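Hi V.,

Quick status before I head out on leave. The structure for the redesign project is tokenized and pasted below; the design run finished overnight.
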């Protein structure tokens, strides 16, 4: 099952949208105007574990704080997560720590200023990490210890 709602001017996500989508395979909400995640009485966008494998939230207005509300504990089967072209400014370990099956993570063209040490260390299957910056975004200072167990240093 697929949910494709790209280019629809969606501005708000609510936990109600996904509550009955336990067998959903792909959610594409790219190219919207999502800037708010509304949760009433719950702490995450995905309340129950679902079979979601592909989640496309690229080209929206999401921030780092929105990533906490997505709740990676319920989307542990995710293999591709596209968050490019948003307003994400920092990354920490709690944002991705349960996504052990994730293969592709795209965070390109976000105004990222800080990445916590070992922020993606638990992503043991990660083979495609996209972190492309525009020329006017040179705020990220330090990459040390981010990829400690993920990639082999050939130097």
């Amino acid at each position: 099952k697929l949910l494709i709602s790209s280019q629809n001017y969606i501005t708000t996500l609510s936990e109600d949208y996904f509550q009955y989508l336990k067998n959903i395979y792909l959610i594409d909400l790219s190219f919207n105007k999502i800037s708010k995640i509304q949760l009433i009485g719950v702490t995450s966008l995905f309340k129950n574990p679902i079979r979601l494998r592909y989640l496309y939230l690229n080209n929206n207005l999401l921030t780092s704080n929105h990533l906490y509300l997505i709740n990676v504990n319920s989307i542990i089967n995710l293999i591709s997560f596209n968050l490019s072209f948003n307003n994400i400014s920092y990354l920490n370990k709690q944002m991705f720590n349960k996504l052990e099956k994730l293969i592709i993570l795209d965070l390109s063209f976000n105004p990222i200023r800080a990445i916590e040490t070992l922020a993606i260390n638990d992503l043991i299957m990660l083979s495609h990490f996209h972190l492309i910056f525009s020329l006017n975004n040179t705020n990220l200072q330090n990459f040390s210890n981010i990829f400690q167990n993920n990639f082999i240093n050939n130097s």
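Above is the designed sequence. DSSP finds one helix and ten strands in the chain.

G. will cover questions while I'm gone.

Best,
W.
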